[in-house]
Automatic annotation (TrEMBL):
Protein name as catalogued: LHFPL tetraspan subfamily member 2a protein
Annotated organism of origin: Perca flavescens
A GO BP entry: single fertilization
Keywords from the named record: Fertilization, Membrane, Transmembrane, Transmembrane helix
Keyword Oxidoreductase in record: no
Compartments it resides in: Membrane
Coiled-coil ranges per UniProt: none
Membrane topology term: Multi-pass membrane protein
Main localisation: membrane
Stretches that traverse the bilayer: 12-31, 93-117, 129-151, 180-200
GO cellular component: membrane
Assigned protein family: Belongs to the LHFP family.
Length: 225
């Protein structure tokens, strides 16, 4: 018989797991990792800034995408991938970053999917599903850390220098500033480890004496604060 067990701690862990996975995925897909120096759409695309009159804007550069304003576009900014193939990503460090972040996000998405069903299933192959998911989140967090540590090492590439100026170098952003996607990825990494630790609390909450008493009373829906 399936017992639906809902507790505050288990629901909070589920919600945090979903939010973390979603946040990391959005950050990875975003072009707002680096915000370039101001320039105009009809400027010569060089590391020395804008060379023509017009309304200035700041292009953005992601791990595999970018947002720029082209002269023939009267309004709006064109966003899309600059790398069609994996080998066209700006540097080898960013390629490694992509691999580590993708691996971490894949694990987080898998845990977020599984977490929805933890209300009905608390164990798998006689092992606590919360502990298994917590372990996966810990591994995902390590992948994310490796990816974020390698990311600034790619700032010395030619692609980054076009957006950030000739002073851009590994672990030095030059004229660029960090975009919201980078901070979202960092925040998501912190939340990943918080979820990994909190999974133990979710396990304790769903296997407490109060839950066992409710099960023995024959209840199929158990809600505890």
């Amino acid at each position: 018989m399936c017992h639906v067990i809902v507790t505050c701690r288990s629901m909070l862990w589920t919600l945090l797991s979903i939010v973390t996975a979603f946040g990391e995925l959005i950050a990875f897909m975003s072009t707002d990792w680096l915000v370039g120096f101001p320039r105009t759409p009809d400027a010569v695309f060089s590391p020395h800034g804008a060379t023509a009159a017009g309304e200035a804007y700041r292009p953005t550069l992601g791990i595999y995408g970018r947002c720029i304003k082209l002269p023939h576009l009267k309004r709006g900014i064109l966003c899309g991938p600059y790398a069609i193939h994996f080998g066209e990503i700006a540097s080898g460090f960013w390629q490694a970053t992509s691999i580590f972040l993708a691996a971490g996000i894949l694990l987080l998405c898998a845990v977020a999917f599984i977490s929805v069903f933890t209300m009905c299933f608390q164990s798998i192959m006689k092992k606590s599903i919360f502990n298994v998911c917590g372990l996966l989140q810990g591994i995902a967090g390590l992948f994310l850390i490796l990816g974020l540590m390698l990311y600034p090492a790619g700032w010395g590439s030619d692609k980054v220098q076009l957006y950030c100026g000739p002073d851009a170098a590994p672990y030095r952003a030059g004229l660029c500033s960090m975009g919201w996607a980078f901070y979202t990825a960092m925040g998501g990494t912190v939340l990943t480890f918080i979820c990994a630790v909190f999974s133990a609390q979710a396990e304790i909450a769903t296997s407490s004496d109060k839950v066992q008493e409710e099960i023995e009373e024959g209840k199929s829906l158990i809600c505890l604060l």
